[in-house]
Task: structure prediction
Amino acid sequence: MALQEIKEISKNDSLELIIADLSSQKEIRLLADKLRKKYPVIHVLINNAGAVNDKWSETVDKIETTFATNHLAYFLLTLLILDNLKSASNARIVNLASEAQRTGKINFDD
Result:
């Protein structure tokens, strides 16, 4: 399991895995609630969700899946926990993106 491997490498047993479907705004809100309650001060947020779909698909919220996951999820999660980030004296938000768009081709005709 990845979490156990990271704990062993980092020698930090206090790490926690929280799983959420970042294509779902309901799940993002549930994740934000958990984070706000458990971590009143958040020092670093690394947004690293990503999806590449070769065919059109929509989320449960009726939003195109790649856009919902790669863009809207970051914005909503960050907005929902922003007060916790502001509670840290020197918080950082890091947004990562993929180069996958350079090689992918989306077929919206299917």
